[in-house]
Description:
Layout: H1 18-35, H2 39-45, H3 50-60, E1 68-69, E2 72-73, H4 77-90, H5 92-112, H6 115-126, E3 132-135, E4 151-155, E5 158-169, E6 176-183, E7 186-193, E8 199-203, E9 215-226, H7 238-272, E10 274-275, E11 278-279, H8 284-312, H9 318-343, H10 354-364, H11 371-383
Parallel strand pairs: 3-6
Antiparallel strand pairs: 1-2, 4-5, 5-9, 6-7, 8-9, 10-11
Helix pairs in contact: 1-4, 4-5, 4-7, 4-8, 5-6, 5-7, 7-8, 7-9, 7-10, 8-9, 9-10, 9-11
Amino acid sequence: MDRVAPLELLDLDGNLSPEDRDMRAVVRRVIDDRVRPHVATWYEDGRVPVRELAAEFGKLGLLGMHLTGYGCAGATATAYGLACLELEAGDSGVRSLVSVQGSLAMFAIHRYGSEEQKQRWLPPMAAGEAIGCFGLTEPDHGSDPAGMATRARRDGGDWVLTGGKMWITNAPVADVAVIWARTDDGVRGFAVPMDTPGVTAREIKHKMSLRASSTGEIVLDDVRLPDAARLPGAEGLKAPLSCLTEARFGIVWGALGAARDCLETAIDYACSREQFGRPIAGFQLTQAKLADMALELQKGYLLALHLGALADAGRLRPEQVSVGKLNNVREAIAIARQCRTILGANGISAEYPVMRHANNLESVLTYEGTSEVHQLVVGQKLTGVSAFV
C-alpha cells in the first residue's frame, strides 16, 4: 500500500502558492545538502559554522527575508514560516541563527533604526556578511524584561552602557548587538558594534540543548556610544516585545519542522524494524501513536497557515502568536518524545535525529516566552485580567 508523508495527509499544499512551494523546496534542498550530513557532529562537538551558514543563507535571501528594502527579499509571512519549518527540520539551532538575525536584530533596526543605521547594517546582514544578535535577556531577568538591570546614562552627547545580557544567540560571533537598556526616560535600544571598547562576549559552554548554536553572555563595561547608536524609533518596552512577537511567529512554524523530522524518522524506522517476525509498523499500538502524532502535526500546521494568512493581511495580533507558540512547541516536544519510544534504545543514538530534536525543543519551549508566559497572555486576553502582577 502506498504511503503518504505526515504533512501530505490532508493535502494542505493547495493552501500554498507556487512561489511558496518553490521556496520551500530550495530551503529543504540546502538543509539536505549543507546541514543534515554534518549537524550530528556539530551537536556533539557543541559548535556550528555560523558565518559559513549565514553566507549561504544570505545568497538564498533567507536572512530578514520578510523585510523589504536594504537587500531583503520582501517575502510573505507564510513564505518565511515555511522557511523556518524547513530550517528547524534540520536543527533548531540553525533556525535560531536565521530567526535571531532576521526577526530580532534586523527587524529591530528595520523598524526602529535611523536611515543611517539601516544603510550601515541591513545590507551586509541580509547578505550574511555581518552577524547580529539581540540583547534583552539578562542573568536575573528572563521572563520579566521590565526588571532589566542594564543601564544607559547620558554623558554629554554620548551614552554610557553598563550591564550584562545572557543566553544571547549569535553573540560570540556577532558584529552588532541590538542592546536594550533602561534610561531615565524608559527602555531604549542601541545598535552596538561588538568591537566597541568595553564590550565582551563569552561563549556559554556545557549546554545539553541547542548545541549546534552559538550562545553567549555579553558584558557591557562602561561602553561609550554616540547618540547615533540609539535606535530613534524605539521607546519603551513595547519595542523589544514587538521584536519578540516577530521571532515567535517563526517558532510557530519552526517547531513543526522538528516534529515532522521526528515523525518521518519514526515512520521509516517502524516500517523497517522487525520484532516478533514483522515490522513494528504493523502493530496496533505503534499505528495508534503514529496516527495521533500525525493529527497533532496537521493541526499545528493548519494553525500556522492561519496565522500566516493573518500576518500577510496585516491582522496578526500578539496574543494570536502566543496561541501558536504555546500549542505548536508543546505538541512538537510531545511528538519528539513519543517518536523516541518507537525507536526504542536507538532513539537515544545520534545516528537518528529524534533525541537531538527533543533536547533542542526543551530550549524552544522556554525561549521567546515560556509556555507559562504564553498561557498567561492568552488567559489575560480571555478574561481581561492580568495575572502578571
